[in-house]
Amino acid sequence: MDFKDYYNIMGVERDASQDEIKRAYRKLARKYHPDVSKEADAEARFKDLGEAYAVLKDPEKRAAYDQLGADWKAGQDFQPPPNWDAGFEFSGGGYSGGDSAAYSDFFETLFGHGFGSAQTDRSRAGFHARGEDHHAKVLIDLEDAYQGAVRSITLRTPEFDSSGHVTTKQRTLKVKIPKGVKQGQRIRLSGQGSPGVGNGHDGDLYLEIEFNPHRLFRVEGRDVFLDLPVTPWEAALGGTIKTPTPEGPVDLKIPQGTSTGRTLRLQKRGIPGEPPGDLYVSLVITLPPADSDAARHLYRKMEKDLAYNPRGNLGA
Amino acid sequence: MKQQTLTGNLLDERAELSLKEISRACSSTSEWVIELVSEGVLEPVGREQEQWRFSGTSLLRARAAMRLQHDLDINVAGVALALDLIEEIETLRERLRRIETPTNK
Questions:
Q1: % of chain A surpassing 90 pLDDT
Q2: Given its phi and psi angles, is residue A158 left (phi above 0), alpha (psi -120 to 50 degrees) or beta?
Q3: CA angle A149–A155–A120, rounded 5-degree value
Q4: Which H or E run includes A110?
Q5: Nearest-CA neighbor of A134 among A190, A178, A181?
Q6: Closest-CA residue in chain B for A280?
C-alpha cells in the first residue's frame, strides 16, 4: 500500500491552519473538478484531493494522520504501525458525502473502520416505494459506436444479507449499444434498477457510455483524431497513402509541402449521427534512421544539395 | 439458457424525460430540478410542469450541476454560471480546431 502525502496533495505546509486548508481545497477543487478541467488526470487528482481534504479538515483525523510522522514520502510502501490510532477519540460520523469506495486503500486502512460506520445511509430521506435508479458505466470500443453492438455487462450491487452483512450480488445483462453513441451519453433501461417495494415500480438503470482507450484513435464528442506518421518525401512531395479509420482503411491524399503537425479533416468520417463527426488526421513526419552507410550518404547528400537552414530567421 | 438482449433508450438530444424521471435519475427532488429550470440551467420542452420533457443532454447537465454543487459548495446561480462558461469554452475550442484545420474530402 502506498503512503499518501495529504499535505503535498493539498499544497499546504504541515502546520497550515484549518482556514488555509479550506482555501487550498476550494481553489484546487475548482481547478481539478472533472466537470471543469480538461486535463487527462483531473478525475484522479480530484479524488486524491477529496480524500486529502476529508482527512485534513477533520481535526480528529488530521491529528491521527499527523502522528504517523513527517518522514513518509508519497508512494512509499506503507503499513500502519500497530495500534497507530490508540489514544485518539473518534466520534464517528466521519467523512461526508463520499462513498467510501472512492477512497484509496491507504485511507481505508487508516480511517475505514475505526471511524465508526462511515457508510451509514447517505439516506434518501423518507420511504420510497419505487426502486432506486442505478447508474453504471459501460465500456465499449470506438468501432462499436460506428456499427452498433451488443455488450454483456456485469454489475455488482452491494446488498445487505439477513444478518446485516454487505455482500455483492452479480448480475449480467446483455445490452444493445445503438450506432452513433457518444462518450458520456446515457442509455436508460427501464425497470433494471432496484426492485420496487410493494406495488412500487422497479427503478431504472442508466448506463453511461465510455470508450475503451484506442490504440490509434482519440475521441472528442463525435470527432475522432489520429496521428499519422509520414515520411519526409511523402510530406514534401505529396501523395496518396493508406490511412486507418474506424471503418477500415481509406486512401488519403497528402498535399505536397506538408509540414509536421498539419491536420487534415475528413468530413463525416467521425462517429455517425446527426450531424456526424469528422475524422482529424494529424501528420507526423518521421525520419528514417541513419543506420547504414547508404542512409548516411543520402543525408550527407541532402545536406549538400539542399542547403536548407530551418533556423534562417531565428537570428542566431 | 439464452440471455435476452435488452434494448434501452439512448438519451440524446431528443426530449423524453419527465420532471419526475430526471429528478430521480439525479437522486434529487423535483424542487431542485425546478430551481435549475428557473435559473435557466435546464430548458425543458413543454409549457406546464406536468408536460415538461427533458433531453439526454439535460440529464448530463443536471448531473454535472449536482456534482458541482455538491463538490464545490456553490449555489444554483453559481452552478448555472459555471456550466455556461464551461460550455462556451468547449464551443470555442471546437471552433478553434475547425479554423486551424483545412478540409480534406
A1: 36
A2: beta
A3: 150
A4: helix A105-111
A5: A190
A6: B101
Domains of chain A as residue ranges with CATH: 6-111 (1.10.287.110), 134-211 (2.60.260.20), 217-306 (2.60.260.20)
Smallest CA–CA separation between A282 and chain B, in Å?
9
**Mean pLDDT along residues B71-83:** 90
The residue to which cell 482555501 is assigned: A23
| Grid cell in block for residue A138 | 459501460
Mean pLDDT of chain B: 86
Q: How far apart are CA A197 and CA A304, in angstroms?
A: 84
Q: In this complex, is the C-beta atom of A259 within 8 Å of any C-beta atom belonging to chain B?
A: no
Phi-psi region of A299 (alpha: psi -120 to 50; beta: other; left: phi over 0): alpha
**ipTM of the modeled complex:** 0.72
Q: Write down the pTM of the prediction.
A: 0.63
Cell of A99: 462513498
| Closest C-alpha among A102, A101, A177, A135 to residue B24 | A135
Domains and CATH numbers, chain B: 15-100 (1.10.1660.10)
Mean pLDDT value across chain A? 81
Integer-rounded Cα Rg, in Å, for chain B is: 17
Which of A35, A188, A252 minimises the CB distance to B9? A188
